[in-house]
Design a protein that fits this description.
By secondary structure, the chain is α+β, with helices and mostly antiparallel strands. 27% of the residues lie in helices and 47% in strands. The protein is built from 1 helix and 4 strands; from the N terminus they run E-E-E-E-H. The chain is globular. A hairpin with a 5-residue loop joins strand 3 and strand 4.
Length: 75
Amino acid sequence: MKLVYLQNTDNAYVLKAEVTFKFLGVSLGRRSKIFIRKYSDKKWREEKSGKLASRKEKFYLNKWLSDHQKFVEHY
């Protein structure tokens, strides 16, 4: 997963990530996912389906948020 952007809206964080599919080290394709974390909920959800993020996705999302939160909230 790669971070595309992270936004701070009125009531949530919005994060767009790019997921690359690989097989035997060869990249087969990419897909963009948008995740939303509301301040009241504290859980990452996919924007389109409303499903909760997987453990692996949550690890990356929380890491990116903690790394970039100072800059996002400042602007």
